[in-house]
Amino acid sequence: MKALSQKRRHPFAFVALLLLGLLVTGGLYAAATTVNQAQASNVPPGYSTEDVEEGQRLFVANCATCHGMNAEGTDAGPSLVGVGAAAVDFQVGTGRMPMQMQGPQAQQKPPQFNDEQTGQLAAYVASLGAGPAVPDDEYLDIDQGDAARGGELFRINCAMCHNAAGAGGALTEGKYAPSLHGVEARHIYSAMTTGPQNMPVFNDSNIPPEDKRDIITFLKTYESQGTPGGFSLGFMGPVAEGLLIWTLGLALLIGSMVWLTSRSS
């Protein structure tokens, strides 16, 4: 103890402590700088560091309960690492996320976040890992698309679930393919690239961006035509139309028979 006390009184003890303090401070600063550089390098194209930071705050406040503090996933929600900005743009932009309640699939509802906040959430999730990006405007311009070819592609790849008219349809276990009428072009594109719910993923190898644009052009062209024949009947096709005609025909026939027999009596 006496020897230790003498060392503390050594004239160079203060200098040694000062150097040690500077070394620790410099090391911490270097580590923090490295972390900041790593975070800056993870900023996805088209976004800023501020977008990522604000998106993280929104995520922690609204999404971390189900998806985990670092979006690693929990029993209540899947991991979001690698899903990309397009998945967030679709799920949050259509109001499906945050979910209102647990169920077979997330239901569309009024969005909880505005476009700026949705973009910030997308920036944060995109910074966690590479994934599909929000589509460029050139692939959403229906003036450059081919509606006829898009209709052919839609009937081959989409009509078995969404109906040939894009009206949607029932699936198994309480799930369903939603109607595509009134859906924004970018959300249709993002759905194809991310495969939400039971939908398969159509990446650029399956359906190139130009073909996706043609499909969107077909849907928007079909939607703009309205229902010139009268009632849409849910766009269910000849089965619904035949059932309506059959039901009305029988009703008219039975009504006529009742009227005739009542007249004769």
Fraction of residues in β-strands: under 5%
The CATH architecture of one domain is Orthogonal Bundle
Instruction: Give me the count of strands.
Output: 2
Quaternary state of the chains: single chain
Biggest sheet strand order reads: 1-2
Mean pLDDT: 84
The radius of gyration computed from the alpha-carbon positions, rounded to a whole number of angstroms, is: 30 Å
Principal-axes geometry comes out as elongated
Q: What is the ordering of alpha helices and beta strands?
A: HHHHHHHHEEHHH
Count of separate DSSP helical elements: 11
Global structural class: mainly alpha
Major sheet? 2 strands, antiparallel
**Annotated CATH topology of one domain:** Cytochrome Bc1 Complex, Chain D, domain 2
The low-confidence runs, each spanning 5 or more residues with pLDDT under 50, are 32-40
Helical content band: 55-70%
Calculate the terminal CA-CA distance, rounded to whole Å.
128 Å
Highest-level CATH class of one domain: Mainly Alpha
InterPro entries: bc1_cytC-su (IPR009152), Cyt_c-like_dom (IPR009056), Cyt_c-like_dom_sf (IPR036909), Cytochrome_c_Oxidase_Subunit (IPR050597)
Subcellular location: Cell membrane
EC number: 7.1.1.8
Enzyme class: translocase
